[in-house]
Amino acid sequence: MNYPDFNPESRYEKLVLLNCLSMPIICFALLIIIIAAHLEGSEMRTIRLTSGEWPPYTSASLKHYGIISQIVSEAYAKEGYLVDFDFYPGIRSLKQAKLKSWDGSLPWQPTKEREAEFLFSNPVLTSRNVFFHRKDRDFQWKKLADLKGLKIGTAKGYAYSSGFRKSVNKIGINLIDSDSDLVNMKLLLDGRIDLLLCDINVGLFLLANHFKPQKAQTITYNSRDVFQVPLSLVFPKNNRRSSQLKVAFNNGLAKLKNSGKYNTILSPVENDKPLLVALSHWPPWKITRGGKFTGIDVEILKSISKRTGIRFEYRECPWKRCIELVGNGKADLITSFGKTPKREKIVYYIEPPYTLSTVVFYRKKGSPVEISDYDQLRNYKIGVIKGSVYFDHFDKDDSLNKTAVTRKYQLINMLLSERIDLIVGYEYPTDYSIALMGKSDQLEKLSFNVKGVSESYFAISKKSSALKSAPVLGAALHRMVQQNEVRTIIKTYLRNLPADKE
């Protein structure tokens, strides 16, 4: 317990000390009065609230006890109050708030039953509830009737929106009640339910903190809201302080929003550094000029940032060096990354792949070089980019005469000067680089093509603290692919080739 400070410099308290020897009984009585006055003032400025474990909003194990708890603390601080939190399982935290030892509880959505016993503050925030599903399920819905026949995981004791359970029961939708959202997420991963109805931030937090990235990335969510509900503080009507505390919070919350701090708290990356992205110049996917970064990959990351609040900063490096930076954890993210067993040891791939590329070979126009089968490649000098992977047979074939450089324009110039016979590359970025240099009329693709396509990914270093962001990034990217936003970005760059030279 924290006892009030006794100030011997106070004139009143000094008088008490001077009279203690001659009047011990009076001295003792006065001391009790002073301590009681201090305690009364201290208690009137302290608020005691109950809460449950519902991360990232509320949790005893989180910094500031979670996002909502931090908003509440800082709103009350604007009005000169301190907040003490105590945590109880589920609905028990609401029951505890009815006891005289507590001033209120959080966070709760209003219902008729709760409004009969509690005063509700202005909403702290609004909870968006969506359907989570496995990525291997092509799930779309417009109305509740579209969900008929599906098993939907819900949590026991959750109020959800007014009339939701009644509506789905009337339609005949199968709700599977479990003890928590975490249990439901496990059921979804195991394929024992089809959908999970959950607050969007709670679901993403569970995926990031309770499952390995490879497993978490098999889950995404449909961006259509099932419903939204306001979350508030509640104050028991039988507590004489409740009206005062409600007004104080509402006033403090308004001040917090006006100051801009409210939006900062809601950011998923508050106080976190931006993720460092290692970029090698590889137009049109990655364009680095004079410290400025553009290109398809950068545009996709900009959109992901808008969707998630996660920020990115960039570092230019040769491709092989970029891989080293991600491998040793000095960079968090790498883009346009092909998947190989060796690379999977150093990164986690963010699903889904966002581009499919065909590997092709180029020669100088008028060159006698002809390739009709793979074995003929052994007769020529082939230009490659250091650290790049093309297709498995070619990458592992040490019998081929390969010349490795760091930049695509170097390969093109070497081919034009006949220092090499062929260059190998991914079709779209190589076509782009050739056109950018104004050499389209001097080079041509061979008819020999490699079977299959190469998938490109965003990937996070296994040594990066950003690993927990993988489910969030993956969900945002998956929605961009589904909504054809990635395709639109790619088409924009391939349709509008810059006129300046590399």
Topology:
Layout: H1 11-19, H2 24-44, E1 46-51, H3 67-78, E2 82-87, H4 92-96, E3 104-108, H5 112-117, E4 118-120, E5 125-134, E6 151-155, H6 164-171, E7 174-178, H7 181-189, E8 195-199, H8 200-210, H9 213-216, E9 219-221, E10 227-236, H10 242-259, H11 261-266, E11 275-279, E12 287-289, E13 292-294, H12 296-308, E14 312-316, H13 319-327, E15 333-338, E16 347-357, E17 359-364, E18 381-385, H14 392-396, E19 401-405, H15 408-416, E20 422-426, H16 427-436, E21 443-449, E22 454-461, H17 470-482, H18 485-495
Parallel strand pairs: 1-2, 1-3, 6-7, 6-8, 11-14, 11-15, 18-19, 18-20
Antiparallel strand pairs: 3-10, 4-10, 5-8, 5-9, 5-10, 12-13, 15-22, 16-22, 17-20, 17-21
Task: Describe the 3D structure.
With 502 residues, the chain is an alpha/beta fold. It has 4 domains: 11-44; 126-229, 3-Layer(aba) Sandwich (D-Maltodextrin-Binding Protein, domain 2); 275-354 and 456-495, D-Maltodextrin-Binding Protein, domain 2 (3-Layer(aba) Sandwich); 359-452, D-Maltodextrin-Binding Protein, domain 2 (3-Layer(aba) Sandwich). 36% of the residues lie in helices and 25% in strands. Helix 1 (11-19) runs antiparallel to helix 2, helix 3 packs across helix 10 (242-259) and helix 12 (296-308) packs across helix 17 (470-482). Mean pLDDT is 85; it is low at 1-18, 34-44 and 498-502.
